[in-house]
Amino acid sequence: MSAGGEIGEKAAEKVLAEINVKRGDADPEATEKLKAVFRQWDTDGDGIISREELGRIMKELDPSFKQDELEVMFQACDANQDGVIDYSEFINWLFDSKELTT
Questions:
Q1: What local confidence, expressed as pLDDT, does residue 91 receive?
Q2: In this predicted structure, what is the pLDDT of residue 93?
Q3: Which of 52, 62, 46 lies closest to 8, judged by CA?
Q4: What is the pLDDT of residue 97?
Q5: What is the pLDDT of residue 2?
Q6: What does the DSSP 8-state code read for residue 63?
Q7: Does the pTM of the predicted model rise above 0.90?
Q8: Domains and CATH numbers, the chain
Q9: Beta-bridge mates of residue 85
Q10: In whole angstroms, what is the distance from residue 6 CA to residue 83 CA?
Q11: Consecutive 10-residue averages of pLDDT for the chain (102 residues)
C-alpha cells in the first residue's frame, strides 16, 4: 500500500468508527450519516471539501497529523485531481467503492 493509501486508510477507518458505519454499509441511515459528515467537513457549504477544510478536520481528528501527510492524503482522495474533494470522491475514499455515491 502506498503512503497515501496507508494514511488515508487510517483516517477513513477513524471517520467510519466515529459515526458507527462499517465499510459496505449502504443502508439509508448510513448514507445520511455520511452526507452529514460531508456537510460538516464542507465548512463553507460550497459542495466540496478543500485542502484547507480537510487539513482542519484531520488536525481535529489527530492533532499530530502533519502537513506532508495531508498533501499525500489529499492527492489520494482527489481522484480527478481538480484540487477539491467532491461527495463521490469522499465516499470512494471512505469505502473504496461507488456504492453510496448517489
A1: 85
A2: 82
A3: 62
A4: 43
A5: 45
A6: T
A7: no
A8: 3-95 (1.10.238.10)
A9: 49
A10: 21
A11: 57 74 72 88 96 92 88 89 94 64 40
- Checking 83-87 for CB contacts under 8 A at 24+ apart, the result is 83/50, 83/51, 84/48, 84/49, 84/50, 84/51, 85/48, 85/49, 85/50, 85/54, 86/47, 86/48, 86/49, 87/35, 87/38, 87/47
User: Would you say 88 and 16 are in contact if contact means Cβ atoms under 8 Å apart?
Assistant: no
The predicted pLDDT at position 98 comes to 40
CA Rg value for the chain: 13
Specify the length of the chain in residues. Answer: 102
d(CA 5, CA 25): 21
Give the sign of the dihedral formed by CA 10, CA 82, CA 31, CA 57.
positive
Rounded distance between C-alpha atoms, residue 37 and residue 83, angstroms: 20
Q: Please return the burial class of 83, using the count of CB atoms within 10 Å of its CB with bins 0-12, 13-18 and 19+.
A: exposed
